[in-house]
Amino acid sequence: MKEFKSFYKQVGGNEGNKCRYNTRLDTFGCGCQHDCSYCYAKSLLSFRNLWDAKEPAVADIDKVEQRIARLEPGSIVRLGGMTDCFQPMEAQERVTLATIELLNKYGIGYLIVTKSDLICEYMNILDKELAHIQISTTWIPCEKAVSTERRIKAIETLHTAGFDTAVRLSPYVPQFVDFDRLNSIQCSKIIVEFLRVNHWIRSWLPLDYSEYTVKHAGYNHLPLEKKVEYLAKITGFDEVSVCEDVTEHFEYWRECVNHNKEDCCNLRIGS
Question: What are residue 60's phi and psi, to 5 degrees?
């Protein structure tokens, strides 16, 4: 098994300046078995021949603990920033399980972003004060992750159990979304992230990209007016937030839409 050595990163630049939780801890790297056609991480690594979807590298848990031990208690890290920490091989490797146990031990909060319902098997170790969970839901065809319906069931299970849980509509591609089902999900929070497009994603995901006319930081994006129009189709949630890459759009969401102006992830902290 290959070792993933770059499991920890403080994200800077355009993303790091906007994201409140810019400390990333990936238990798997250099590939993800979900291998999504719209994945920006895949697009960043493929051109350097660093993407292996069949056999991703695995972080060394001893080195993970050494890093976690140096973090400030009460800080929050993102689990699954570049790859899914609950991709299928976690069922055998259990490195994410071991990492969560370490984060609990050292009092470090963790924001989990996943497309898997495997997380429900870990409910007995997830700390309700430290764990924040976003499960990605898309309806995009040909995904290799578990079905959207299984993800929705996981969202509702975790939400009902009292965990800080949100639907993460990421990427939001309106042409594929079942809005009746989306708006009926039993969860109070949703995080919306619109698709960003580069050459690689165009070649992997068949779609009419004629509306993606805004260029920013190496990607094409929808104009703000189209995003506002499409966001209005999401009606079933008490708390709506938009995760945004384009600076001008980011400012609009923060001032006019996001439930928490200081935190677009809208985590439940200290309550």
Answer: -80, 115
Instruction: Give 118-127 pLDDT, tens digit per residue.
Output: 999 999 999 9
Q: What is the pLDDT of residue 50?
A: 75
* CA dihedral sign of residues 15, 78, 6, 87: negative
What kind of fold does domain 8-256 have according to CATH? TIM Barrel (3.20.20)
Provide the CA 107 distance to its chain's centre, in angstroms. 22
Question: What mean pLDDT do residues 156-185 have?
Answer: 97
What are 33's two structure tokens? Answer: 């078995």
**Amino acid type, 151:** R
Q: Domains of the chain: which residue ranges?
A: 8-256
Rounded to an integer, the average pLDDT of 167-179 is 96
pTM, entire model: 0.93
Q: In Å, how far are 44, 61, 91, 157 from 135, measured between CA atoms?
A: 22, 24, 18, 12
CA angle 259/80/187 to nearest 5° reads: 40
The DSSP annotation for 175-198 comes to GG--HHHHTT-S-SEEEEEE--B-
CA dihedral 17, 23, 24, 25 (to 10 degrees): 180
